[in-house]
Amino acid sequence: MEKTRIALKVNGEEREVLAPVHHTLLEVLREELGLPGTKHGCELGECGTCTVLVDGRPILSCLTLPVECEGREITTVEGLAGTSLHPLQQAFAELGSAQCGYCIPGFLLSAAALLRERPHPTRPEIAEATAGNLCRCTGYLKILEAIELAAERMRHPDMEKISG
Amino acid sequence: MAEERPPELSVIGQPLPKVDAAAKVTGQTLFADDLVLPRTAYARLLRSPHPHARIRSIDVSRAAAHPGVVATLVGSELPIPFGILPVSQDEHALALDKVRFVGDPVAAVAALDEETAEEALKLIRVDYDVLPPLMSIVEALRSDARIHDYGPRGNVHKEVSFDFGDVEAGFAEADHVREDTFFFEGNTHLPMEQHAALASRGPDGKLTLWSSTQTPHYVHRALAQVLEMAAAHIRVIACPNGGGFGGKSDPFSHEIVAAKLSMKTGRPVKITLNREEVFYCHRGRHPVSMWIKTGLKRDGTITAMHFRSALDGGAYGSYGVASLYYTGALQTVTYRIPRYKFEGVRVFTNKPPCGPKRGHGTPQPRYALECHIDKFCHDLGLDPAEWRLSNALAPGAVTANQMKVRTIGLRECLQRVVESSGFAAKRGRLGPGRGVGLAASAYISGAGLPIYWNAMPHSGVQIKVDRSGGVAVFCGSTDIGQGSDSVLAYVVAEELGIRPEDIRVVTADTDLTPVDLGSYSSRVTLMTGNAAIQAARRVREQIFAAAARKLEVPAERLRAASRRVFDTADPLRSLTFADAVVLAESELGTLGAVGSYKPPRSVAKWKGAGVGPTPTYSYSACVVELSADRETGIVRIDKVWIAHDVGKSINPLLVIGQVEGSVYMGLGEVLMEEQAFRKGRHKIPSMLEYKSPTTLEMPPVESILVETLDPEGPYGAKECGQGPLLPVIPAVANALFDALGIRIDEIPITPEKVLAALEGRLRGPRMPELTYPETVVVPPLEPAAPAAAPQGAPR
Which of B296, B574, B646, B686 has an alpha carbon 20 to 30 Å from B128's alpha carbon atom? Predict the structure, then answer.
């Protein structure tokens, strides 16, 4: 199979891969770049599980070709945490928002994009921003609550110390 | 166990994060498809394009010669049948001479990469002799063609009929008799993770399989059987499941094929199903037609109930015999029903096989029963909440079908949801297009019997304590997201007085962990919890013996808490847990213990009573408030109140997570989810077209936990993962009647059906015409029958 050289910036790291040109960003992230944190639920753009950020905006990596992402910043769940958990990750863990956890990377990235745009999201705005992410375990409520909690903590960084 | 409950609990009952929470929110949990081994080959399955056909020949030669292909596989290389139940060994890893549904696996190819394997599938030539597809119970019963060559007759897989008391006499003495017919369309689990399996034959000839399975023990047995290998040479590791809900509880073709291909090629072989294939694996909710007849006194007292079910089983047996029994088993464990008759039939059709989905066989009859109750209350002018409260069973009751109820929180659940929702004030008074509905239910906390007959424990736990003070807990249980790994850590931490984060949990590995039967039938918290308590108390005894000598106090006075072992009479007399472990290891040698659990023997004395008994039933009650649009037929759920008798909440955070998830799944089933077929094919095998609720449809949920402290449960705990789904579906149907005055006796309740009902053109469901076998008259239990003592429960 003919392979193409692709230069990608993933989670702040410059990476170069050889991959068949028709392989999706999802496949290249998981298979060529060894970043299996991005999951797949349908590979048809229906479930939101494979959501990653490109230049801060959520996209479906199963419908994106890596060549479209050259020169852009790609963020996966592996790039969300620094040495400590991102406030979203902290809130998801505390509130039991991850049951099986399979859809969670996608939710985290959709939520991270929302909070960057709207630090004070309302519940309907959060629901709207994550409506493209399916979850079968939680009934969504704990996920929505965690996004609210994280938003609050990100606005008031001191709060994390108090309740975290 | 109640008398041994510690004076205060420091871990149990706390809203702690799960032990794997950090791994899950950082994407570090490794699911089956995330695993990669050196030299892995990738396999794909060729699936039948026909719902029903005989295979004349299969030619894989061109696929085998395709560049990059490392092996091919056909059914004749795996001729031994398998199936989850010993009575339904009717599946083959790859079809032998017949295909029975669109999606039935026929052949396999392993190649250096997945795309090459997929290309090579196109080179396989299968010569089919196409047979007429039998896509419904009616078609299957009418046809002379048989899908399988076993079963009592035609395409009947299993049929049952039991009389528990003289129902005809009961109807004769009734003041009011009502009959209703219902239909519950099938739906599927739709786990977010597509099933995957990775098999690797080691240099020693032994086989390891990593799989997204809820039941590694049963997969282990199936592999040994089909591969004709010693089970001791096979290791099955269940990876964390990306959602199960019952859909990963059968041994599957792709698991056996990956294993065989690895044995054949000597290299690791991985198969990951695509989403369409997940729809074909199915094993989801059976479509069930139901008829129910109840006799009542004027005051609402039931004199007799007769229930019939007809299950569209799909192409294979799967758990179907159990599913069939479950459609008749639990009607009796909520309200007083003195005489009961159950008749049921499961029929094979050419559709993906049905099996166990959350609530296994009981959401359909529970929907029918709870709507039927509202209907007869309406007939008699009775209040549906009052009727349920005054007819609820008492603790310790034995039902007509000989099911033993232990603690029962049904009345409290009903009271709490009625009160917090304002049900009485709202019913009939919310105005046009708005309504409230109530329903209640019961579920098992684990099946009383294992799937294959044996006298061994259902769950085993092993604990190793080492001189570092580290504690490792080994158990075969499988975490499918419900938090079973966390429950093990909480229980052992509680008993040893340490913190859950001090414990390493090793689970779901048939080489390393004692058998636990699997994550099905809501059995895991109760059974592994009891086994873990027993093992932990045995370890604690060793540690206390040494600590008692050192501290010069009687061992009975010692307690473990806050990572210390101390004298309850003089708490300053103490040792750290780690020091106590060193003392104990110095005195006794290497420390460790095992514990196990087996459910109490059922009181039931009839053949078929293997389904229904449980260590203890959980109870739920639900009120739904909704708005229905007369113009569009769209139903919007405004709020759900749900109370669940969980016995004791081991971790309220996780319990509420299960309750909310159950409510969500119930709402999906009642309003939109359905398996639709057209011309023999699944019409919508995709997540876009198979509608499931999103964040936008999910209403607020008020969850209320009721604690009944069941003596059979660990710290009193019962199940919570499945039961809370059950009342949601009928509560919606009952609320719709309150809102619009229409009854839709068919699930799902789609906008089309609402409009048809409003316009008076909805044809109600009809029972397929079928005969039931001769009734087995079950004699009542001797009134003095002693209550069975719990067996094997730590006490």
Answer: B686
Q: Are residue A58 and residue A124 in the same domain, yes or no?
A: no
Q: Can you tell me the distance from the alpha carbon of B136 to that of B462, in angstroms, rounded to the nearest whole number?
A: 48
Residue A128 structural domain? 87-163
Provide the shortest C-alpha distance from residue A79 to chain B (in Å): 9
Question: Full-prediction pTM beyond 0.95?
Answer: yes
Phi-psi category of residue B513: left, alpha or beta, with phi > 0 → left and psi -120 to 50 → alpha: beta
Does the beta carbon of A43 lie under 8 angstroms from any beta carbon of chain B? yes
Q: Hey, where are the domains in chain B?
A: 457-597
CB contact set of B643 (below 8 Å; sequence gap of 6+): B412, B413, B414, B416, B417, B620, B621, B622, B703, B704, B705, B706
Q: Which of A42, A76, A110 is the last residue of a domain?
A: A76
Query: Is residue A11 domain-shared with residue A56, that is, in the same domain?
Result: yes
**Looking at the complex, does the CB of residue B191 fall below 8 Å from at least one CB of chain A?**
yes
Asked, as a colleague might, if the bond just before B765 is cis with ω within 30 of 0, I would say no
pLDDT tens-digit profile of A92-136?
999 999 999 999 999 999 999 999 999 999 999 999 999 999 999
CB B513, CB B475: distance < 8 Å: yes
∠ CA A10-A13-A17, rounded to 5°? 65
Q: Whose CA is closest to B41, among B325, B219, B292, B266? A: B266
What is the dotted CATH code of the domain comprising B457-597? 3.30.365.10
Inter-residue contact B88 to B316 (CB < 8 Å): yes
A93 and A151 in a common domain = yes
A89/B692 CB distance under 8 A? no
Q: Which of B343, B342, B346 is nearest to B320 (CA)?
A: B346
| Res. B142: pLDDT tops 90 | yes
Phi, psi angle pair for B309, to nearest 5°: -135, 150
Partner B contacted by A137 (CB < 8 A):
yes
Same domain, A103 and A157: yes
Mutate to test the interface with B, among A1, A24, A102 (most CBs of B within 10 A): A102
Contact call for B700 and A141, based on CB within 8 A: yes
Q: Do A140 and B23 touch (CB under 8 A)?
A: no
DSSP for residue B400: T
Q: Can you give the pLDDT at residue A82?
A: 84
Question: Residue B661: its chain A contacts at CB < 8 A?
Answer: 99, 136-139
Residues A92 and A63 in one domain: no
- CA atoms within 13 Å, Cβ hemisphere of B517: 27
Q: In B, residues 374-433, which contact A (CB 8 Å cutoff)?
A: none
ipTM metric: 0.96
